[in-house]
């Protein structure tokens, strides 16, 4: 920089990523501000990295604001951007914020993939909103997004945690009926669930 060589977006992104990886979120934000003041346009990678960092720091409002800024600048968030924010919100138990984001994204015509569905279903189950998770699961078929084994395992675990053996067994039956091969996680969830009820 001192020699007159201006860093480009790749350099700034690498610095931001390094600071986020080291949990130095304030430093990452400082680099982001410097990037903008140097008239170097942030990229989608810049925003994804910062959104991830802010969610890890439980600064969910700022992460949400970055998503809005992306949209204002004409950058189109994709599955990765939305997944990072949804996951951060759900891990931070901000499931209502995650639902608001989800509804906004769906209303704008965005088609979420199975991973995005799984993130929100897991988030809902983790706060005891299993019935809401089931609604989302049933909606997947209308969106031409087939639930996978992770989806079913998550729902089964949610039902077992609530002591709802019948609903958990219905999900198990759906796994088999849909020709999905249960894995070690499926069996562990079932055994643990049956032993705890």
Provide an overview of this structure.
By secondary structure, the chain is an all-alpha fold. It has a domain at 1-77: Alpha Horseshoe (Serine Threonine Protein Phosphatase 5, Tetratricopeptide repeat). The chain has eleven helices and no strands. Helix 3 runs antiparallel to helix 4, helix 4 packs antiparallel against helix 5 (79-91) and helix 7 (114-126) packs antiparallel against helix 8 (130-142). The longest helix has 13 residues, at 9-21.
CATH fold group of one domain:
Serine Threonine Protein Phosphatase 5, Tetratricopeptide repeat
Percentage of residues in DSSP E strands: under 5%
Main sheet properties = none
* N-to-C span: 63 Å
Tell me the number of helical segments per DSSP (H or I, 4 or more residues long): 11
Q: Any guess at the CATH architecture of one domain?
A: Alpha Horseshoe
């Amino acid at each position: 920089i001192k020699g007159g060589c201006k860093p480009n977006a790749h350099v700034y992104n690498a610095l931001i990523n390094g600071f986020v990886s080291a949990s130095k979120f304030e430093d990452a934000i400082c680099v982001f501000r410097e990037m903008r003041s140097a008239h170097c346009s942030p990229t989608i990678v810049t925003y994804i990295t910062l959104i991830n960092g802010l969610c890890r720091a439980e600064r969910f409002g700022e992460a949400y604001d970055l998503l809005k800024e992306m949209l204002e600048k004409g950058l189109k968030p994709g599955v990765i951007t939305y997944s990072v924010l949804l996951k951060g919100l759900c891990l931070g138990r901000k499931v209502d914020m995650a639902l608001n984001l989800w509804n906004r994204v769906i209303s704008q015509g965005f088609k979420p993939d199975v991973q995005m569905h799984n993130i929100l279903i897991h988030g809902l189950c983790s706060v005891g909103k299993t019935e809401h998770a089931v609604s989302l699961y049933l909606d997947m078929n209308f969106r031409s997004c087939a639930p996978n084994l992770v989806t079913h395992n998550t729902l089964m675990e949610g039902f077992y945690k609530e002591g709802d053996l019948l609903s958990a067994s219905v999900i198990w039956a759906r796994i088999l009926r849909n020709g999905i091969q249960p894995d070690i996680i499926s069996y562990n969830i079932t055994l643990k669930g049956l032993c705890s009820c």
